[in-house]
Amino acid sequence: LCRGGLAERLCRLQNRERSAISFWRHQCMSEDKIPSDKSGVLIVKILEIFEECTIQVAICQQLEQSPATLSPEDAVINAEEPILKVLFTRETAAHLKSRPQDVIHIYPPWQKLLLQNADVPVIMNTYFSQKVLLSEHSEPREKTYGPTKMLIRKNIISLAQTFRLDDLDDNLHQESSDNQVACAPQTHNNSDSKRHPSALSAVNDSLLEMVESQGAVGWREVQVRVVIQRVYCLPAREGCRSHAQGNKTLLSNGGMFCRLCLLVQDAYGMFSEVQLQSLGSTDDIEQYCKRWEGKSCCLAGMKILQRTTRGRAVGLFSLIDSLWPPVVPVKVPGQSQDSEMMTTDLPPPSFCYILTVQSGEIHVEVDEEEQISDLYQPPAVHSLKEILRINGCNERCSFWAQVLYRRLQTKHSVPIDQREMLLFVTDSSLQNVAHGIPKVVAVSVTASCVLSMEIIEALSADSPLVFFKDALWGNGRIICVERTVLLLQKPLLCSAAGADLSELTGPVRLDELDSTTQASSLCALRGTVVGVNESTAFSWPTCNRCGNGKLEVCPQDRELLYCNQCSEVVTAPVLKMQLEVFLSCPSRSQSTVKVKVWHEISHIAVQTERPALFVLLTMLLLLQAYEVQSVLGKEVGLLNCYVHSITSHPNCVALEEIVLE
């Protein structure tokens, strides 16, 4: 808050007000008596109670006499006494736990409001209120009301009724017994609610109306009908991890704790993110996407976790913007809902409520047999060529691509499970382009993007085809962030919009090294060997199962090696060797091109499918019998390389030979 601003002053005033109320109530409870100062005290007897817009409204009769001298005959309503409408906030009502016939003392500074065209005055500012218990009548009242919880009527006021529109929706203004809530906390039986869903009130279609009428405490007796636009997983906060381990509400995937989330939209176009806690494995995310996306569902047992805006949740609103404007006309708050008044010409939402489930309550009821909603917007699939031509920033995009190579970013200060991963992908639209567009693009997968074990295993295989749903494009980069989903199967409901999604038929080609090549990219290299850095030559054994390069001597048999990751003895280690060579490349004639080459020998057999240059280098490493001069001047064909760095002082290009998957 700005120092000295109106918001800061209001915040301080509210804090002082809450402190004064708490201190006053504590003083009354500790002294166990009614405050002696009776000047200005308003004494009322409650005749009727109902709730409207989170405010408890009590129809009361004003009393002139002190309740200590009341007799049973005084409980009879006197028509001559004035009738008042007293407003209690939710917190005050929860503190009083009032019932009809209760006597309430309302202490200053209460205020009386006289409304035009209304005969009953309204009493506000009732924070300093106290219920008077009559000692001689308290015992029978406890016997009468103690075991049961009284229900009060809750009036749901629709926006149409507020603005006095002619075509009111009669279903939204019901005062039946189904629309009653307990005035005191009660134990909610989850199994009974599941067996009797009709016990809840009529289904509403406005998220905003439910938030305004139910408040942040939670929706216990109301349902909201929405459409599931997206299903994804989000990493859980650090504070939730220790709490969730005991209840097994969150899942662990490679050290990351996640929860299932839904992005839903109501009939007015408003979005909300619902965070659930009922996912057994990240592998279930693909099934939930197939079963739930596009379907209508009813939310109940929700509470508001946060109200967020564009400035605080850029990633969430980039996804919302990709779903805006709606594909069908939506309702407009405060207007008639005739088809002529429904529109798609609305500004995008500026805020969004983050909802979460309440323990023991009904969560999400999805009708999987229902048809796909007209409001649902499936992901629009584009080719990589089309995505690279998008001019916007922070644009969500979906595409189908072949993963050629993956590389974990080496930041030693960051744990492995929190490091970013680069996936180098391509498709037919890039491979068939002659010039101007790269044949391979890098996709950065951040640690906040939740990957299923199925995807992780597939990325370790040979050239998997992966569907990237709702990735982020901006500043020339494709990034997989929160709310991005990677799937092995393309969703059944997706729009290609004329994109070239044909599969690759021939071998993959990379762009050759030239003056436009950038760091952290892939390229093809050709040139002549002009030097060998013998000081960098070394070899090391690795595990033939997991590739672990940090093997130890087996404690039981010191002639064998042991892998800590596999917890097994390595009987057939793979020997890896590495060497740096310098090449002269016509495409970078002014640069020193340094290539880190490597070779693997499984058991003792040399992999003869490797280029002749590297067979010579392998023999040089193994036997140290070849002269370096024997490889100088050798021509190197097209090698697939990863570009580590490009510097201008000195003018040097550092590459590493790779094998495409």
The domain tally reads 4
**SS-based structural class?**
alpha+beta
Average per-residue pLDDT, rounded, comes to: 77
Percent of residues in helices: 10-25%
How large a portion of the residues is in β-strands, by DSSP E?
25-35%
List low-pLDDT spans.
72-76, 136-148, 168-200, 238-255, 603-612
Oligomer: single chain
Number of strands: 33
Envelope shape: elongated
Rounded Rg:
35 Å
Number of alpha- plus pi-helical segments? 13
Distance between the termini: 53 Å
CATH architecture of the largest domain: Beta Barrel
CATH class of the largest domain: Mainly Beta
Q: How many strands, what sense, and barrel or not for the largest sheet?
A: 9 strands, mixed
Describe this structure in words.
The protein is α+β, with helices and mostly antiparallel strands and 661 residues long. It folds into four domains: 6-25 and 38-65 and 80-131, OB fold (Dihydrolipoamide Acetyltransferase, E2P) (Beta Barrel); 202-236 and 257-329 and 348-377, OB fold (Dihydrolipoamide Acetyltransferase, E2P) (Beta Barrel); 384-487, Beta Barrel (OB fold (Dihydrolipoamide Acetyltransferase, E2P)); 521-657, Nucleic acid-binding proteins (OB fold (Dihydrolipoamide Acetyltransferase, E2P)). The protein is built from 13 helices and 33 strands. The longest helix is centred in the N-terminal third of the chain and has 26 residues, at 6-31.
